[in-house]
Amino acid sequence: MNIHEYQARALLKAQGIPMLDGDVATTPTEAEAIARRLGRTVVIKAQVHAGGRGKAGGVRLARNPSEALDCAADILGMRIKGLEVQKILVVPAAEIATESYVALIMDRESQKPVFMVSPAGGVDIEDVAARAPEKITRLAVDPAYGLFPHQALALAFALFRDFTQVKAAARILEQLYAAFVANGCSLAEINPLATTPEGRVLALDAKIIIDDNELFWRPDLGVLRDDTAEEPSEAAARRANLSFIKLDGDVGCVVNGAGLAMATMDLVKYYGGEPANFLDIGGSSSPEKVIAALRIITADPRVKAILFNIFGGITRTDDVANGIVAATRQFKVRVPIVIRLTGTNEAEAIRILNEVGMTALSDMDEAVRRAVALAREAA
Are strands 98-107 and 59-62 parallel, antiparallel or unpaired? Predict the structure, then answer.
């Protein structure tokens, strides 16, 4: 689960990480009041779950409350990567001497939290990794023992030479690890971790992604979710209890089971198509979930064909068939549907489809080839 920067800042400040005070606003007048209270030049930052805010004009400097009012008016309501800015963060502008990058991610390969630090902060770390990978220092942390002080110092020495700053950075790294563990994060990032001309070490930005699996245990974190800042289709899928990830292709896929969904997407690409989504209706599907799935997929104007690939085990294929029929009665499906289903209650499912003039295939390859061909014809 993505959370906003102002929410991430609160979680990091709770662990004692030094950050400048700021506040969030939803109107230009609120931003003006915050700037007046801070009494200095401020930075106004769009709060959306998208990167590249600065390049999109979503980060502006305001030298006084009047400029803060104007900047806030410009940023609020703008769209960054399709997401409308509804909140802004107003923080004091800091004088910066150096910028470093610090992050902690959950690494699937080592199955451990891994620190990534670089003295080349303030820019996209992907660019640093491509141009100068030697500037990135990595350290895997054994979760059974946590981050040892000597490990934190070693990482801090990769960032600074001044020992006072090294000690300050080491403390921040320990606090970042504590925040990562306490909040069930899959990523916790500070970019930049800056030094001021006076030598202070400050976190000027924060990004946190919370592992969705943690939310079952931590309803207090769940309230941080902002549906309005997410991709609408993914938010709708979550409310319908569907596993959904939007992709850039034109073959909409409805599948039961994550493994079959991955295999289906691979086969779509094998036959020259591009999947428009990952969508798993789960192992205990119901007609209502199928209706929700079709409603989400048909809302994507890029989808040219829809492929159902259902292997009925716990999932009843007649439930899926009933869902397809009900959906086509509730709203217009403007693209062709290719259905492959086999398994539990297969004969009943085929009967339900045949009654409304639909047919189902039993061969997965044939169904995928047909869906890819139909999408290509419609493109």
Answer: unpaired
Tokens of 265: 């997407």
Q: How far apart are CA 279 and CA 252, in angstroms?
A: 9
Q: What are phi and psi of 374, to 5 degrees?
A: -65, -40
Tell me which of 101, 174, 177, 346 is the catalytic residue. Answer: 101
Choosing from 5, 30, 32, 189, which is the catalytic residue?
189
- As given in the structure block, the two tokens for residue 344 are 């539990």
Catalytic residue flag (residue 189) = yes
**How many CA atoms lie less than 13 Å away from 73 in the CB half-sphere?**
8
Q: Tell me, yes or no, if 6 is annotated catalytic.
A: no
Q: Which of 313, 333, 311 is nearest to 264 (CA)?
A: 311
d(CA 228, CA 92): 27
Q: d(Cα 134, Cα 250) in Å, to the nearest integer?
A: 40
Q: Which residue has tokens 């693209």?
A: 335
* Residue 307 token pair: 């492929």
pLDDT tens digit sequence for 231-262: 778 888 888 888 899 899 999 999 999 999 99
In the numeric block, which tokens belong to residue 177? 């690890």
Q: Are 97 and 159 in contact (CB under 8 A)?
A: no
Q: pLDDT by residue (tens digit) across 258-315?
A: 999 999 999 999 999 999 999 999 876 689 999 999 999 999 999 999 999 999 888 8
93 and 61 in contact (C-beta within 8 Å)? yes
Cβ pair 290, 321 in contact under 8 A: no
Q: Which of 351, 356, 319 is nearest to 337 (CA)?
A: 356
